[in-house]
Structures are given as structure tokens and as C-alpha cells.
Amino acid sequence: MKRNNTFKMVYLSLLIAFAVAVHTIEAAIPVPVPVPGAKLGLANIITLFTIVFYGYRSGLVVASLRSVIGSMLIGNFMGFGFYLSFGGAVSSCLVMALFMHLYRKKIVSLISVSVAGAVTFNTVQLALASALVQNFILFRGYLPFLLLLAVPTGIFTGLVTWFLQKYAVRLQLQVERPSKQSS
Question: For labelling alongside 29, which of 18, 85, 87, 149 has CA 20 to 30 A away?
């Protein structure tokens, strides 16, 4: 049992490191979309992968630490961008955890879980930005564009996670199956 906990901790540490690296690289890549703050959400691949293999608590740890450490590395810790990133990451992770119940019952696909997370991420970020600048017209103006962007990025994230899951299972990288309590 102790060996499995050690392996799980090592795997989660690696997933956090990957998520921070992707978060940091993505922050440096300009997105060719005329919507301020729009990103591809590639770090959510790691979060969703973590939820699939280790449950929502571990996914929440990865999402939270990715936002905190990533914002420290890019220099916006406790700044405007940090609050948007952290709020979006945590709420997105929680929504994906809820949708994972439907996924495990084979009601929805992993892509649906990912799209729900992407829509939540963009909606929460926009709501937080509107509240922080006290201009709720932003929410009404940008929401359709961000939702339109969330669908293809969510589909991409879901597809990549699905392929990674299949590959990881084939390589027997899974340490533990999330119990009903943690998923």
C-alpha cells in the first residue's frame, strides 16, 4: 500500500510539473484570435488526465498548483491574470469532476467532459474579469466569442486526453483506479 502511495505521489508530481510547463509555454504563445485572454487551454489536458486516473481531488491539486506555480513563473502571481486563471482552473476541474460521473456511467464521452470544462473555464474567467473591472457589459459582449472558442478547444483537449488515456493504459501506467469517493 505504501508503495502505491509513493508511486501516486511521484506521478502526481510529474503531472503537476507537466501542467506548469504547458501553462508557462502557453502563456508565451500569442493566440491568433481577436478575443483578449483567449487561450487554447492545453494545460487542461493534464488536469483531465489526472481526473481520469486519480480522481477529482488529485485533479484539483494539479489544477490549483498549476495556476499558482505557473503564475509565479510568468510573473503575475496575485495579479489580475492569476485570479482569472485560478478561478477558471478550479471551477473547470469541479465541473469536469461532476461530468466524470456521467462518463463512468457511459452517458457522455470524455470529449463532452472536456467541453464542459472549457465552457466553465471561459465563463468563470469572464465573470471574474467583469467583476474585477466592474463592467458587466464585457460579460455580455465577450461571452458568445469565448463559448464559440471553448467548443473546439474542449474537443481538442478531450481527444488528446482520450488518446493519452488509451496509451497510458496500454503501457500500464495507471497506479490506482479512482474510488467512488475520490471520483
Answer: 87
